[in-house]
């Protein structure tokens, strides 16, 4: 075997993952069948807040096919601890107990009350309907502002308050900035709750090993290593006895970045009954039992000069925790604290976030977590500032951008961005959309009184990707390291195995990691096998979320591969009886300068395997481990511009063009980047125009099915035009930044700003998401009196 001269990083080679998925050959958790497995179903509370005064399982147990049924009290002894919160953002944070199955009290509609195990899933579901539960209804609260009012119903009586925490941050003299400002603009923006809704709902299958006493857990999860570690703690099993496998995972978007009650229940019940236990989420389950995204009230103010230069910014958040703290719930809003200043350069900044309990499903990470909310607020207020000053929305942004920087720069929030060159990115987006021509067309339509008005919206953003440096994580009390592990092995055949601690669910890691290893080793990507998502194969890893996979996990693969080359160089020098300094390595071959002598890296791998002619003291085999803990986040950025047509008689909005110019540093596979952007932009458009989780006065979901919860259909989405600039990150040797969440961050503010811009001349200067036709129509009518 010889290596090719081709370089693969930067090429759009086809995703190797796709063939199986598009031909129906993927392996998903629900498709895994183990003989004798019991099917788990969960009875969920129909009340938002109540005491449990009795649970009668008699009728359910009598149903043929039912093997067992339990209440929360029956299973309480099975758990060493409740479901933990992994991000206690302050020392005095209030953390309620969170049992996997409610024992005395339910705190939101969908809280699990009892379980049934049956020989098939349909019987288990039928039996759930036969369980009789007696409740004593308690007062409930569903709005974060109302929850902080004196005398508001308490979600957890034992805590004595609905106030979970307060997290402040301040830099510079904010009061002085506002005192000397020519203009102060204030805004109140809502981040509605959204349902993550991956194509594949959650699922878990636990198979006990009767001989070794361990358990294999198959789960549709983003975080198999988290599930192993936390599952062991919750159920009280040594982590060495748990093997977690995440097979093909049909989307996650942050909702599968958790250890859920059903995973703990399945593990505890498999141990108790000594049988495999399987649970698959229904869509109804998903809408009440899987974490929701967003859920914030944002109050924001900027102080500026009459020329539009920002002097200071104030941010006040109320963040809806829901009824419990899931793994990262408190930290999501705090994570955004560092990016409310966006791409803009000014002197002083203050941020204050209050976490608030409500009797609703817990919130947690959702694509762009924290940063999407921040970008929405700062881009909304930039448009508000431009209107207040009579300036163009692009002009006010351009005069506030940070100047170009290629190494760490401290920004108003006090953190250091890694690199940025924002103006060329923004101007490229304006060029692609032909910004001046659009403004001219808008002016013409306004002057002619056209029923269909044209709006243009800008979404500038940067995000803290590459989550996260371990020391930084510790500084904000996140109970997790931010490193990532990789192993690269050259086999006796000359093929390559890459083991990664990242766990993909659609991102294309197998393809991209093979490109990285192939370039480093001088082989073809087809000769690289990427192993992942199995804690027995990859025992160390921090998994996939926070736009971290490439800038942490992929970089770790890169570094491990170069360690392999370094060892191979030493062996090659020994075999060739030459100095390492005299060797060149190109296209997978070590050559002695000025001679024809050389050896391929595959021949070196064979020599390392045979081990009979190695340098003195060198260990056999050609492999290397690497654990990479980055010195900083990466900060990808971009400008998204939306052209929107709004029918002023119906409120119906149509996206005419959508342009996104993104900068994620060096790109490994452009097609994968484009796919990630397309998906993220679709989700951002969905939140901006269609999606909202709503509830009635008793806390029952009124968007409990996909018939009620509206997504963006393919027909609602425009052709998405992509552009790029490249500003390498200095935090890693590949100069990469990550892209998985950028589309969802820049798109929502661009869309909402475009809708408002289309009708601002009619007096509509504020709309909350989603910008449904009814909401837009009502705003126009109210503005006209």
From TrEMBL:
* GO molecular function annotation: iron ion binding; oxidoreductase activity
Keywords in alphabetical order: Molybdenum, Oxidoreductase
Instruction: Show where the Aldehyde oxidase/xanthine dehydrogenase a/b hammerhead domain sits.
Output: 23-139
- Look up the domain of life of the source: Bacteria
**Which Pfam families does UniProt cross-reference here?**
Ald_Xan_dh_C (PF01315), MoCoBD_1 (PF02738), MoCoBD_2 (PF20256)
The record's listing under SMART domains reads: Ald_Xan_dh_C
| This protein's name | Carbon-monoxide dehydrogenase large subunit
Q: Which organism is it from?
A: Pseudonocardia hydrocarbonoxydans
């Amino acid at each position: 075997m010889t290596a090719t001269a081709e370089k693969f990083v930067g090429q759009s080679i086809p995703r190797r993952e796709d063939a199986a998925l598009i031909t129906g050959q993927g392996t998903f958790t629900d498709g895994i069948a183990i003989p004798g497995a019991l099917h788990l179903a969960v009875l969920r509370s129909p009340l938002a807040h109540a005491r449990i005064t009795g649970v009668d399982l008699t009728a359910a147990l009598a149903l043929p096919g039912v093997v067992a049924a339990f209440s929360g009290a029956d299973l309480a002894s099975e758990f060493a601890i409740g479901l933990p919160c992994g991000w206690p953002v302050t020392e005095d944070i209030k953390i309620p107990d969170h049992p996997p199955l409610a024992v005395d009290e339910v705190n939101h509609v969908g809280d699990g009350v009892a379980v049934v195990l049956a020989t098939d899933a349909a019987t288990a579901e039928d039996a759930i309907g036969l369980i009789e539960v007696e409740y004593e209804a308690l007062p409930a609260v569903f709005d974060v502002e109302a929850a902080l009012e004196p005398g508001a119903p308490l979600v957890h009586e034992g805590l004595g308050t609905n106030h979970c925490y307060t997290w402040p941050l301040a830099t510079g003299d904010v009061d002085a900035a506002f005192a000397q400002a020519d203009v102060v603009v204030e805004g109140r923006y809502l981040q509605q709750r959204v349902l993550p809704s991956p194509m594949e709902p959650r699922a878990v299958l636990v198979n006990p090993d009767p001989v070794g006493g361990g358990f294999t857990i198959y789960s549709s999860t983003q975080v198999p290593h988290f599930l192993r570690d936390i599952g062991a703690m919750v159920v009280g099993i040594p982590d060495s006895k748990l093997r977690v496998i995440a097979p093909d995972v049909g989307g996650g978007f942050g909702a599968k970045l958790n250890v859920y009650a059903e995973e703990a229940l399945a593990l505890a019940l498999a141990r108790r009954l000594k049988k495999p236990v399987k649970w698959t989420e229904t869509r109804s389950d998903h809408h009440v039992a899987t974490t929701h995204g967003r859920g914030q009230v944002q109050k924001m103010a900027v102080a500026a000069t009459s020329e539009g230069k920002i002097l200071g910014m104030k941010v006040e958040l109320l963040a809806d925790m829901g009824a419990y703290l899931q793994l990262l719930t408190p930290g999501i809003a705090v994570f955004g604290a560092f990016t409310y200043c966006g791409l803009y350069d000014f002197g002083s900044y203050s941020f204050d976030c209050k976490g608030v309990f409500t009797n609703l499903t817990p919130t947690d990470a959702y694509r762009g977590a924290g940063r999407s909310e921040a970008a929405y607020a700062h881009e909304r207020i930039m448009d508000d500032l431009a209107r207040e000053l009579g300036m163009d929305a692009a002009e006010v942004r351009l005069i506030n951008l940070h100047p170009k920087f290629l190494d760490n720069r401290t920004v108003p929030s006090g953190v250091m961005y890694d690199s940025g060159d924002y103006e060329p990115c923004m101007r490229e987006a304006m060029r692609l959309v032909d910004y001046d021509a659009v403004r001219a067309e808008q002016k013409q339509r306004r002057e002619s009184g056209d029923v269909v008005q044209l709006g243009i919206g800008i979404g500038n953003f940067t995000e803290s990707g590459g989550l996260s440096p371990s020391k930084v994580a510790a500084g904000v009390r996140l109970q997790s390291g931010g490193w990532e592990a990789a192993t690269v092995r050259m086999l006796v055949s000359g093929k390559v195995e890459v083991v990664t601690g990242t766990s993909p669910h659609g991102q294309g890691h197998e393809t991209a990691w093979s490109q990285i290893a192939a370039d480093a080793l001088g082989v073809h990507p087809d000769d690289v096998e990427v192993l992942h998502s199995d804690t027995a194969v990859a025992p160390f890893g921090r998994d996939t979320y926070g736009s971290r996979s490439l800038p942490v996990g992929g970089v770790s693969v890169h570094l491990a591969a170069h360690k392999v080359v370094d060892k191979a160089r030493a062996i090659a020098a020994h075999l060739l009886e030459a100095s390492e300094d005299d060797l060149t390595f190109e296209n997978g071959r070590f050559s002695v300068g000025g001679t024809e002598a050389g050896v391929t890296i595959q021949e070196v791998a064979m020599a390392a395997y045979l081990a009979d002619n190695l340098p003195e003291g060198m260990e056999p085999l050609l492999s290397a481990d690497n654990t990479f803990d980055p010195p900083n986040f990466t900060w990808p950025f971009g400008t998204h511009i939306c052209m929107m047509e709004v029918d002023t008689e119906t409120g119906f909005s149509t996206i005419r063009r959508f342009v996104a110019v993104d900068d994620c540093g060096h790109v490994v596979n452009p097609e994968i980047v484009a796919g990630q952007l397309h998906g993220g932009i679709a989700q951002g458009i969905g939140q901006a125009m269609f999606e909202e989780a709503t509830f009635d006065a008793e806390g029952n979901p009124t968007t409990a099915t996909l018939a009620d919860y509206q997504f963006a259909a393919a027909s609602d989405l425009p052709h998405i035009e992509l552009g790029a600039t490249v500003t390498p990150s200095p935090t890693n040797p590949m100069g990469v930044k990550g892209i998985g969440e950028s589309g969802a961050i820049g798109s929502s503010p661009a869309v909402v700003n475009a809708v408002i811009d289309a009708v601002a001349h009619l007096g509509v200067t504020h709309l909350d998401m989603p910008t449904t036709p009814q909401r837009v129509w009502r705003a126009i009518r109210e503005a006209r009196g």
